Amino acid sequence: MSDKKYFIYTRKSTDTEDRQVRSLADQLSELRELARKEQLDVVDTFIEKQTAKVPGRPVLAEMLERIEAGEASGILAWHPDRLARNSVDGGKIIYLVDTGMITDLKFPTFWFDATPQGKFMLSIAFGQSKYYVDNLSENVKRGFRQKLKNGIWPQKAPIGYLNDKKTKLITIDLEKAPLIKKAFEAYATGNYTLSGLRKAMGELGLTGHKGRDLSISNYQYLLKNHLYYGLIYFHSEFWEGKHEPIITKKLYDQVQEVMTHKSKPQHDGGLKPYVYRGLFKCAECGCCITNETKKGHNYLRCTKRKGPCSQKYVREEAMTTLIQAELKKVSLSDAVANWLIAEVEKEKAMDDNSSKDQIQKVNDDAMAVDAKLDKLMTAYLENALTLEEYQTAKNKLVSEKQVLKDKLASFGRVSTSRFEPVINFLNDCKQAAILAESDDPTKIRTFFQKVGSNPLVRDRALVFSPRAPFAFVTKIPKKSSNEAGGAEGGFQGGIPPRPPFVVCDDAISGDSALSAKLLRDLDSNQDTGLQRPMSYH
Q: Domain containing 213 — which CATH number?
């Protein structure tokens, strides 16, 4: 048995097992066999699971401290690269050899002797290990850059996508992608905090890659990920992705706006769930209207945080009645709504390829952006721009091109799909008539928020103006069906107007307002009962 005492040191990085040269078990087996054959006195074994690319490994530091304390003077390791792959650790070990703290290093596949030649060979081995790490890093970075230029996401696919090993692209996860889209849509309403969204989407079954629940920070990262609308944002630079987007750029921007303003949910889980909590403000002082319960009834009152206010309590039931009255103003009977829907359907059937000119214009704009990108890259290569200037200008152009791609994608769908929001709006007007007679205050509140925003309370009355296009319905002169005659009762003269909704692609989009042109047209038709046909385009 040798008089020298040795430490066994084994290490593997944090990579997966199949990428390791030798597993920890293999290293231990080989080193113990080496110690048995050479009859070495092993006093302790150190096992570390950390990369040696940078200094700061705690297990190695502990072992070297114990060597300096005289507990051992030799080390057994599988290869010099297990001990060091950076100049600091390599230099530390060679220094301990120089000072005599380390008198022997033994490796199954590498010879070492504490002589000038041995130390020289050891330093070469450490240098080779560092070169391998540095070269590997450069190769990985070069591979990343090439993938990005080709529009390929270079890392593990985020939730909603899957890595395709054959094509090297990311593909839609048919199970989770719809939930990702739903998460964006839900948060864009402004009715959810991140914790509320986490709870709601968790109940729908949205989980991580390994089936684990997503954290709040996961949702924050998810909602800020440009990848979902088609762009790759990597190292402060945008790249066009070849993958299929899950959402549109417009929806992404809506989510960012909500996140910026830190919208609050309709109901806070820690507060009593009053149906109208956070919905109204006081028309006199501008304070929020709060809720409280007295003698078994719920009341709405001004918080009076800004000072004295003369406004009185309003019972929740009375407020529901006031809201229902507003919903009646924006409602249409089934007969009228169905007639208008039929008119829209006729226009939809007659719609042709009038969008071709628009498609060509968008294509021309996209080509112009490509030309600018080429010129920008040439300017950078000729040192006319700094890297920061190049990246800033490129990011702006790539974002601009993504908007154009979104437009082309919308044109690529059936051109008559622009009529669908109109039909949905008319169905909403039918729904308003139903909810005006409903006894479900939760549904009434939800629809009321769709009709308008920023409602006020003054003298126990509701101060409210519906947003367009619902405002248009309130301007229609209405009569009873007996006065108007026929199935189209409700319009002056019994003749409903032609649907003046489709004036441009964004005339009606969900809850968006009608265009200024449409509003002027509506105002000009008020006095004549809207009997004059209106221009559609």
A: 3.90.1750.20
